[in-house]
Design goal:
Elements: E1 6-8, H1 27-36, E2 41-44, H2 53-63, E3 66-74, H3 82-98, E4 102-107, H4 122-141, E5 145-148, H5 159-168, E6 172-176, H6 177-182, H7 187-194, E7 198-203, E8 205-206, H8 208-215, H9 221-226, E9 230-231, H10 240-246, E10 254-256, H11 273-285
Helix pairs in contact: 2-3, 3-4, 7-10
């Protein structure tokens, strides 16, 4: 894979907007390391870059980076979605002004912390499915493509959820190997299942010894990430070669997104974001 197709994600440097996540590195260091790695694209992350679109765009341009996508959690599983749709419209307008072509979205629950699963009634599923088509249209009006990101701790995380969305909506997908595996699904099978509807790709590898405890509920999302559930590409247990084969015809950006937490020494595995990214880039370039 050519390096110009590979993008970075700030969470690979431990950046997260959730309270108590860990040590937050400054944007300057992250940008310098992204450029040193030879990458030219990065996803927008709230809390790291300016919240004004013009300022954020200038920041990306000054760093010689293109904004590959931006994350927007949305809670659509209710009849009256007026407030949530207005919030999404503002968010997607921001991404359009930033120059980001993709809005990765998560079907978030009320808390938005990913620590507990979001289980919907049949009626709520109907609201969610209608809402996904609504935001797809809203984003399209702004020239932005919606990519639904199946994500641990959201209403769409496992294969059954994904099948419902495939059958009842037109929304595109962000395929994320690690989240699909961490929800207990087969990431190779899901890759083949949604390849034709995929508009964006996140790649991470997984340590199933940790993931199994997340899947059975022994530990939560933040704890699993702190214990190193995600590894550099090629260092974990996923069949990434088979996954990439399912996306042979995909010619978009591939984002290396290895969620980590930078915790106090001795409270989790040692994490060196630059070293992790170097290993993952080398793996992708060999494919």
């Amino acid at each position: 894979m050519q390096r110009d197709r590979i993008a970075a994600q700030p969470v690979s440097w431990g950046i997260n907007y959730l309270p108590g996540w860990g040590r937050m590195l400054d944007a300057g260091r992250i940008i310098r390391e992204v450029r040193k790695l030879g990458l030219t694209a990065m996803e927008y992350q709230p809390g790291l870059f300016p919240e004004d679109a013009a300022a954020a765009r200038a920041y990306f341009e000054g760093a010689g980076l293109r904004p590959a996508a931006g994350w927007v959690p949305v809670n659509l599983a209710q009849r009256d979605r007026t407030v949530e749709l207005a919030r999404f419209r503002d968010a997607v307008r921001f991404l359009a002004d930033l120059g980001a072509p993709i809005s990765t979205i998560g079907a978030a629950g009320p808390t938005g912390d990913f620590e507990s699963g979001v289980r919907l009634t049949e009626q709520q599923w109907g609201y969610l499915e209608a809402g996904l088509d609504e935001i797809t249209d809203i984003a399209g009006e702004a020239g932005v493509t919606v990519a639904l990101h199946p994500h641990v701790g959201t209403a769409v995380e496992n294969e059954q959820d994904i099948q419902r969305v495939l059958a009842n909506t037109t929304v595109g997908f962000c395929y994320d190997a690690g989240h699909i595996a961490a929800a207990g699904a087969d990431p190779v099978h899901v890759a083949r299942l949604i390849a034709d509807r995929t508009v964006h790709v996140h790649l991470k590898d997984i340590d199933y010894r940790v993931a199994e405890r997340l899947i059975d509920g022994t530990i939560g999302w933040a704890e699993a990430v702190g214990e190193g559930v995600f590894t550099p590409l090629g260092r974990g247990d996923l069949d990434l070669t088979a996954i990439l084969a399912a996306y042979r015809s995909y010619d978009g950006t591939v984002v290396i997104e290895q969620d980590i937490r930078l915790l106090e020494e001795g409270t989790g595995p040692r994490q060196d974001p630059f070293e992790n990214m170097s290993t993952s880039i080398a793996f992708l370039e060999a494919q």
